[in-house]
Structure formats: C-alpha cells, structure tokens
C-alpha cells in the first residue's frame, strides 16, 4: 500500500493484492517504479497485508463498496487509522 502526489497536486493511492499463489505482492523497488510511472513527486509506503482495504463510495448514494481487500488466514484486522479522500464541496464539517 502506498500514497503519492503528482506535481499538479493529484493524489495517487495504490494497493497491491499479494501473498497468494497468483501474486507475491510488490517490493519497495516495485512501488517506486509504479509511483514514478504515474508521475509521483512525493510518495510514502504504508502498512500492507491484512490491514489494507480500499473502499469507494458511490457518487449518487451513501453505499461504500470494498474495491480491494487483502486476504489473511485470521480475517480482517481492526484499524485505528485511515486515509479518507473526498471532494471539498461534499465534506460534512458538522459533527454531533
């Protein structure tokens, strides 16, 4: 799992499904190459494995869907932190 940013300010978020017979995942060198190929000027490697999920919400309704989920023999792990990306005009700043 990695996050990067291009010179134009666009964010790049990458998850790679590995640790299975058809995929061994990615090395640090693989992540560097992928991020550079997409034009990243800054990038950071994040935790991977079973703590990696990518979820996308529908633009028309509140219906999050899991896009990628890394497998684990022990099931999903609880996560204390996450990175959320949204449009500024759709962010609700009112909290109860």
List keywords for this structure.
Phosphodiester glycosidase family protein, glycosidase, three-stranded antiparallel sheet, two-stranded antiparallel sheet, alpha+beta, 96 residues, NAGPA, globular, hydrolase
Task: Explain the overall architecture.
This protein is α+β, with helices and mostly antiparallel strands. It has one domain. 10% of the residues lie in helices and 25% in strands. It contains one helix and five strands, in the order E-E-H-E-E-E. The chain has a three-stranded antiparallel beta sheet, with helices on one face. Strands 4-5 form a two-stranded antiparallel ribbon. A hairpin with a 4-residue loop joins strand 1 and strand 2. The chain is globular, with a radius of gyration of 15 Å. 10% of the residues are buried.
